[in-house]
Amino acid sequence: MSERYRTFREFYPFYLTEHVNPVSRRLHVVGTSLVIGALIAGIATADWSWYVGAPLIGYGFAWVGHFFFEKNTPATFKYPAFSLMGDFRLWFETVTLQRKF
To answer: Is 32 part of any domain?
Structure first.
């Protein structure tokens, strides 16, 4: 990961190479779905604890995927914004059946 990505368009192909393991991808999709649910719950209940829990849930699922299945370091550490964008794009592509679950 020595190359420095300046745009998300440049970064996303790299992001996909870091998520080739199907279990890892599934963990990312489940984690992102739970994050979305937590954010909705936070809005619905006006309870701030959902907002605190959302990143813990999302990163928890994603990092299990990286450390135990991909055997790589999450791109979040070097590209936090692009990585988060990648998580939501991967989620969207999966739930709209553009990418295999």
So the answer is: yes
